[in-house]
From TrEMBL:
Residues that span the membrane, as ranges: none
Lineage: Bacteria, Pseudomonadati, Thermodesulfobacteriota, Desulfuromonadia, Desulfuromonadales
Locations listed in the record: Cytoplasm
Entry-linked InterPro entries: KsgA/Erm, rRNA_Ade_diMease-like_C, rRNA_Ade_methylase_Trfase_N, rRNA_adenine_dimethylase, SAM-dependent_MTases_sf
Predominant cellular place of this UniProt entry's protein: cytoplasm
Entry keyword rRNA processing: yes
PANTHER family given in the database record: DIMETHYLADENOSINE TRANSFERASE (PTHR11727), DIMETHYLADENOSINE TRANSFERASE-RELATED (PTHR11727:SF7)
Gene name in the database record: rsmA
Record's protein name: Ribosomal RNA small subunit methyltransferase A
Length: 263
């Protein structure tokens, strides 16, 4: 393992800072009953702290050389899945819910992974994830700020998001060019707003932020909703489609999705 040369195409920046590793593991609040999924174990910086401490640990690693190293390990309750976490069927892996997800994610796929996590939220109780700081800013953003977007709304609807640690490039080998951030996502007992149809809500939210400079009316019409539909929603709810999507609170998006689907 020591001879493994980090592969840029897999976003391999290995964690070496013991304090960051400890803070990440502490935020997961692991117990012996937990089932954990780690995406991208790499050389095991986080994995080694979890093996043997939890009821089961599933790891997904795209790099065959690194995965082979884990496959050769004798530990029970460790299951290695070799492949692309974006393509694998998580419902065939997350067989013993609820799960905790722990990952130092490759930055180039972190948003896509997060959308996939949100899709599987019914199987997940908590996530502790490392992101590029700019992505972290988006996930913790408030309405009407430049960082507020579809990912913010979808994450905060289901999860309470908090920062665990701000992480400098020196915490990794090789060092990335950007600052990073570990975030904890705790599944809420109730979503922040009542959403009837999560798939439709997701479609509306994504459409609302598709063209950030345009009004919500233009975004929604571009996504196939009609001006007449929007007028009816305004008459019923008072929502103003002259505003931009980034000014809408999560509750307003829920009202909007409900209106578009039911009026
Ligand atoms: N967890 C290790 C650590 O903290 O040192 C490694 C983190 S490194 C930033 C990202 C890891 O994700 C690498 O091991 C990389 O090979 C793996 N990886 C990259 N793309 C992946 C994908 N699509 N599916 C699964 N693993 C992936």
């Amino acid at each position: 393992m020591a001879s493994h040369r980090p592969r840029k195409r897999f976003g391999q920046n290995f964690l070496k800072d013991k304090n960051v590793i400890a803070a990440t593991i502490a935020a997961a609040e692991l117990t012996g009953d937990d089932h954990v999924l780690e995406i991208g174990p790499g050389q095991g910086a986080l994995t080694d702290q979890m093996i043997g401490r939890v009821a089961s640990l599933d790891i997904i690693e795209i790099d065959r050389d690194l995965a082979t190293f884990f496959q050769a390990r004798p530990e029970q309750h460790l299951t290695v899945h070799v492949g692309d976490a974006l393509r694998l069927d998580w419902s065939a892996i997350l067989l013993d819910p609820p799960y905790k997800l722990v990952a130092n994610l490759p930055y180039n796929i972190s948003s896509q992974i997060l959308f996939k996590m949100i899709e599987h939220r019914h199987l997940i109780e908590r996530m502790v994830l490392m992101f590029q700081k700019e992505v972290g800013d988006r996930l913790r953003a408030e309405p009407s700020s430049k960082d507020y977007g579809a990912l913010t709304v979808l994450c905060q609807l289901w999860f309470d998001v908090s920062r665990v640690a701000l992480v400098p490039p020196t915490a990794f080998f090789p060092q990335p060019k950007v600052m990073s951030e570990v975030l904890c996502f705790k599944q809420r007992e109730q979503p922040r707003a009542q959403v009837d149809d999560p798939a439709f809500f997701t479609r509306v939210v994504k459409a609302s932020f598709a063209q950030r400079r345009k009004t919500l009316r233009n975004c929604l019409v571009a996504a196939g909703f009609t001006a007449e539909q929007l007028e009816k929603v305004t008459a019923e709810t008072g929502l103003d489609f002259g505003r931009r999507g980034e000014t809408f609170t999560i509750e307003e998006f829920a009202q909007l999705a409900h209106g578009l689907q039911n009026i």
